[in-house]
Structure formats: C-alpha cells, structure tokens
Amino acid sequence: MSDLSPTDAAKHAAARKAVSYIEDGMKVGLGTGSTAAFMVKCLGERVRNEGLKITGVATSTRTADLAASEGINVVTLDDAKWLNLTIDGADEYDGNLNLIKGGGGALLMEKIVATASDRMIVIADLSKQVETLGAFPLPVEVIPFGWQTTKALIEETLINLDVMGRETSRRMNNDEPFLTDQGNYILDLNLKRIGNARRLSLVLNQVPGVVENGLFIDIADVVIIGMGDGSVETRDITDGSVTHDDAPEPGDDNVFAGIADS
Q: Could you tell me the pTM of the whole model?
C-alpha cells in the first residue's frame, strides 16, 4: 500500500476487512464508488486466490463491469432474489449508522440492493463520520419529465422541515444533465443540517416526480472505518460492539493502484 495516499489506504483497509465477512456460496450486493471499487478488487483477489464462489449483484453498470473484469459472477437482483450481504460506501454516516449516499448517482439501485439483504456493511474513512447528517448535499433522483416542477415542490416542502439550507440544484455532467443508470436526473439538496432525517426521507418520497432519495435510515448494520495506516475499526450497531484491527504486514497491494477514481 506504499503507493496509496492515506485516504486511499484507509479505503483499501476498510474494503479488505469487509470482504473477510464474505463466505463461500453467499449472494453479495456490490456497492458503487471509489471505496466500493477497492472492495470489488479485494473480492476479486479472493475469488482468484482462494477459489471463493459467490454471486454478486451490482448497484451500477460501472460496478458490474469492474466485477466481471475481476472474475466475479454477476447476476441481476431478480435472479438472486435475496442477498446475504451488501457492502457499500457512504458519503456521510452518523452515530446510528444512518447514511447519506448517492454522490456517485447510484442511490436508487444501492438502496434497492441494500434493503434486499440480510445485512449491510458500510465501508468508509473517518472523514465521512458526522454528528448530524446534511453537510454533504443530499441527492434526490427525479424523473426528467417536469423536473423543474418537482424541484419547486421540493423547495417548497423544505420550508416546513428542520433543515438549515434549502438550495437545490440539478447535477450536471459537464454541459449536460447527469443521468443515472435509469435515465433520471439527480437534484442535490444543500441542506447543511438535517434535523429529522426519517421525516425528511418520508416527505421527499411523497413529492410527485421523486423516484428515491439518498437517506438510508435503519438499513446499515455495520460500519468499517479504515485508517490511513491500514488499521480498521468495526462498529456493529446491532450489538453495540466496537473492535479494532491493526494494520497488516507490508505486502503486495499494487493490484489496487489506480482505482481511486473508479
């Protein structure tokens, strides 16, 4: 890991620990984003080196492509039906393991896959930990038809909710609107602080045109926090346990180079 930055070393450490939860024969949800890319690489290494046989369900086309290149068997959620475990990153998490996700634009598939799993493990570094959600813009996926009306309705709805900011913008990809894998738009809500995430999530999903929002409430079970030195802390919300693992001995980790921007 000597060629990784401290941030990427932390992501790799969390990913490496997370894939140790995966057992032969499991059906596993594969998250999206730079931290999840490390996880897919770690899982691919286990598949090749240990002969681990698992079935993966990807939360985006880019994760599906990466998993296939790693030799991981990828199927649809309809084929898998139910999953033993989902491993994914987060843009923010609080002390109760409530999350903001969707910085990569895959929040809809990520939430569907996570809720179709017995357990969800979040992999992150300490920079993603917050006391109160909301510093990271909350992504909301909306259909393109009438999106400006949907945006106006959301902004009107926010007036009556416990948030600190109400600035809303459509996510762009250079000069074009960003499109999700389902062909929808993403509205990013700069709320700064979310006083009641559960209520906000319920209210947003009642606005016509909204497909889903990036608040993951009572979905995650475990957070694995990677450190820049390669050590990890694991917090299990179900039993309240906190465990620590030291950094591994130096080894050949160069297979993970170059995926931080995946």
A: 0.93
